[in-house]
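Working notes for the structural subgroup meeting. M.R. asked for a predicted model of this chain before we commit to crystallization trials. I am recording the input and output together here so anyone reviewing the notebook later can reproduce the run.

Input as submitted:
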Amino acid sequence: MSGLRHWGRRRTVADFIASSPGPLADYYRRPVAFDPTLPWSEADYLVLDVEATAVDPEQGHLLSMGWVCVEQGAIQAGTARHHLVRPPEEVGVGQSAVIHHITDTEAREGSSPEEVVEALVDDLQGRVLVCHFAQIELGFAGRICQDRWGIGFWPWQLVDTMQWHVDRSRRLLEHGDGQKVRLNRLMERYGLPPTRPHHALSDAYGTALLLMAIGRNSPDGSDRGRLLGELLDSRSWSM
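Returned structure, recorded in token form:
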């Protein structure tokens, strides 16, 4: 989004970075602003996925985060990270375990939400954030940042692989066929190998594959691939 629309938020961030040490302040001090006219493969990306007890950050609690980086148009396997996240003492995983298969015992052995988000923000420095249906990841990360530092989180540059397809295929939603933009369905559409669903790192890896397929799929049928600006979400701070 433009600086004008984010003026109030930017002033709050300016006050925050002037007085606060730590990885989130460092992230806000160094804007990620890859030129949108560059080929998509010339930007660096961090692809993120989360699992939680519910999809609404106001109702659920984070249970795991997984991410992997894409550089020079390729997944960098050595950057892969998977963290279990310890929920509050009184919170159990409940029926959500049927989906993500994280048990109460495993969750209790996880790291604190603050530790995991600090690691995430550290790795995000200098990279474009990529998510599939980003409002879930941004909601949980933002809530933890608000609790930890008193300020929310929003990425400088964002690619949302689900929203990207929604913006180009709104008729799917108009006809009640939103299932077609789920991660597994889009991976099938691009001929990508299946990954384990509802595992944060596996879904991050699948989203990274989807990012690469989108980036390489030039709209004019040429070999040039897409430009970064063709992928960036309009909710990005820095376009």
